[in-house]
Amino acid sequence: MSASLPRILVTRRLTPAATERARRDFDAVVAEQDMDAAAVLDALRRHPAEAILIGPKVKLDAAAVAQLPACVKLIANSSVGYDHMDAQAAKARGLIVTNTPDVLTDCTADLAFLLLLGACRRAHEYEAIMRSGWRKGFGLPDMLGVRPSGKTLGIVGMGRIGRAMAQRARGFGMRILYHNRSRLPAELEQGAEYFADLHSMLPHCQILSLHLPGGEAGTLMDAAAFAALPKGAVFVNTARGSLVDEDALIAALKSGHLFAAGLDVFRSEPDFDTRFAELPNVFLTPHVASATQETRDAMAMRALDNIAAVTAGRGPIDPV
User: Fold this and answer.
1) Which keywords does this chain's UniProt record carry (predicted)?
2) Active-site residues: which are they?
């Protein structure tokens, strides 16, 4: 490998196309298995690198950031969220931190709407009936779901993904409410109704969907928040498990206050609370909102684009 190529450490498995590019365009060590922070620090001792490409399994807290060797100039996250690392500690050390906005917007909104539909229409229960051999028909009042068309959808976090979710909901004739740190300009609202206070919005939300990053927000949905939703509401989360008090969510689902939930993210992943799997009114996916070939390629390539730009002296494309 030419010594003139930038030296990088890729700490997670990439798609084949991105792996080929990393090895072609950089002096790269590419992980065969996703690394944790300790493995990253060990690899950097053996392969001093200008940049590291990381994912959520690399928990770079302030202590780990302090141990990064001086050769590291850039931490490139191959995801939008970066709450798995202490970005402020990294920037305080003079490190550049980047992420990959935009490229996973559509796929995340697609999966969020899949969860919404699956929760409303009892998809988990219907499929279980079919897989067990369905031999008994249902009458008019049996196994009824909730019609999503025409419902009022509350969106928490009206960034790119939240707006993409709203766009999909409009196709189902939904009324859109949203809570955000600040109100959007009218051209981005597209008729959505703004609530500066989350708890003022919740009583109006027949369906509630979270689309904001975790970390700084803390636990947003606690027992009081779920109680504020109207009886029979549906809850969807493709944002961060840390935003939700899971005990409170389970209680709301068991009591019938919530009709159902669609969940892609959990407080402890992949060791999620298996009580969710025991509830028939929960539609579950294993944190796979971005899991399409197109999007995973784009995420890895965008991280490599940031590395290429910084190592060439052009500055980051997507600074955090």
Assistant:
1) NAD, Oxidoreductase
2) 240, 269, 287
Q: HEC string of the chain?
A: CCCCCCEEEECCCCCHHHHHHHHHHCEEEECCCCCCHHHHHHHHHHCCCCEEEECCCCCECHHHHHHCCCCCCEEEECCCCCCCECHHHHHHCCCEEECCCCCCHHHHHHHHHHHHHHHHCCHHHHHHHHHCCCCCCCCCCCCCCCCCCCCEEEEECCCHHHHHHHHHHHCCCCEEEEECCCCCCHHHHCCCEEECCHHHHHHHCCEEEECCCCCCCCCCECHHHHHHCCCCEEEEECCCHHHECHHHHHHHHHHCCEEEEEECCCCCCCCCCCHHHHCCCEEECCCCCCCCHHHHHHHHHHHHHHHHHHHCCCCCCCEC
Instruction: Give the pLDDT score at 230.
Output: 98
- Please give the pLDDT value at position 83: 80
What domains are defined for the chain? 7-103+293-311 (3.40.50.720), 105-284 (3.40.50.720)
pLDDT of residue 260: 98
| pLDDT surpassing 90 at residue 74 | yes
User: Which two structure tokens, joined as six digits, stand for 116?
Assistant: 């919404």
First to last CA, the chain: 31
Residues 74/26, Cβ–Cβ less than 8 Å: no
Separation in Å, CA 196 to CA 5, 157, 182, 193: 49, 11, 7, 10
